[in-house]
Write a structure and sequence with these properties.
five-stranded antiparallel sheet
Length: about 350
């Protein structure tokens, strides 16, 4: 496992301040691949266990789990060729999607070494993108008799709920918190993609945009704070509505996850250009006081942070305070799954 330490300059952006915390150290760890040239980490739990997707030596897209001291391993969640792993909870349960071996692609829940097919909303394709500590699952599925996908929520085993849309054809659920609140995006009657918040009591709620034509909600914490993108990264709360979080100096950004203490991770343009003339994009960590930290790369020009988890009750000496999972280009432009360890005071 490669490790690098980087401490790029922090930026302050508009925020609703909380207690001040200062990043003191950021280290980035390369997690390897399953034999192919590409791997991407999608989620990390409080124990630093990471899941994601990697190409194997045969070019197949395979779900993986990475654990300290063990390394990266193929999860083999389904009978088919291709699979994904998109989230992991504190119990070590994992969700994703996989070929069934019969031409379909189904959402699964992997628990205690057993993979459970979560079914569909009537179509031949589904994928689970998130689960909470209660093993409730959110994702998307094709519906019967139509090519469109709808967001779903599984509040208990054997019951899958179609969350509908905002008047359009399509919706996808990206995250769920421990209160069973689901976020994602849904098409409006005008065909625009808007971020939504769904609750069992109130159904699907349009969270609006930052003035851009589209928005998407990608993360929600147990304080019901929602993050996502609408041209730029946003934070939505019931009190403030949708707030622009700014960038690392470039034009666009997107927030992918938020912890219960309000630490937000995502990706932003930096204002620079790479060797091919494309905008440079770097992973960021935004602290609750509004400071936005560039998390750096493995030596390449691009990186992105997908998920953040706060370390609680760690057994190792001097543990990091935050785990952040994502991917980064290395100096040879390979895309590698990475895990950032962040210390704060």
């Amino acid at each position: 496992m490669g490790q690098h330490t980087a401490r790029p300059p922090a930026r302050r952006v508009s925020a609703s301040p909380r207690a001040s915390a200062v990043v003191t150290e950021v280290s980035i760890h390369e997690l390897g691949t399953l034999g192919g040239p590409v791997s991407q980490a999608k989620a990390v739990n409080q124990r630093g266990q990471v899941v994601g997707t990697s190409r194997d030596g045969s070019g197949r897209s395979r779900a993986f789990v990475w654990k300290e001291g063990v390394g990266i391993a193929d999860l083999h969640p389904s009978m088919g060729v291709n699979s994904s792993a998109n989230d992991i909870n504190e119990l070590g349960e994992i969700v994703g999607g996989g070929d069934t071996g019969f031409g379909d692609f189904h959402a699964y829940l992997l628990s205690d070494g057993t993979s459970f097919d979560l079914g569909t909303l009537g179509g031949n394709e589904s994928e689970a993108l998130a689960l909470n500590r209660l093993s409730q699952v959110a994702g998307h599925s094709r519906i019967g008799g139509a090519p469109a996908k709808h967001a779903f929520f599984i509040p208990e085993p054997g019951r899958i709920v179609d969350l509908g849309t905002l008047g359009g054809a399509t919706s996808i659920a990206h995250d769920v918190n421990d209160r069973g609140e689901v976020v994602g995006f849904a098409e409006t009657g005008a065909g625009q993609a808007h971020a939504f918040l769904w609750t069992a009591a109130d159904g699907m709620r349009d969270l609006g945009t930052l003035g851009d034509a589209a928005s998407i909600a990608l993360g929600i914490n147990n304080r019901s704070e929602v993050v996502g993108g609408s041209g730029r990264a946003f934070l939505w709360t019931e009190r403030t509505g949708m707030v622009d979080l700014g960038t690392l100096g470039g034009r666009t950004s997107c927030a992918n996850d938020v912890s219960d203490s309000g630490c937000i991770v995502g990706v932003s343009q930096t204002g620079g250009t790479d060797r091919r003339g494309r905008p440079v994009t770097h992973a960021f960590l935004r602290m609750p006081d509004g400071t936005m930290q560039d998390l750096g790369t493995l030596g390449g020009e691009h990186s992105s942070a997908a998920a953040v988890s706060e370390v609680v009750g760690a057994e190792q000496a001097a543990p990091p305070h935050l785990w952040i999972a994502g991917h980064s280009h290395d100096a040879s432009e390979r895309i590698c799954a990475v895990l950032w360890a962040v210390r704060v005071r």
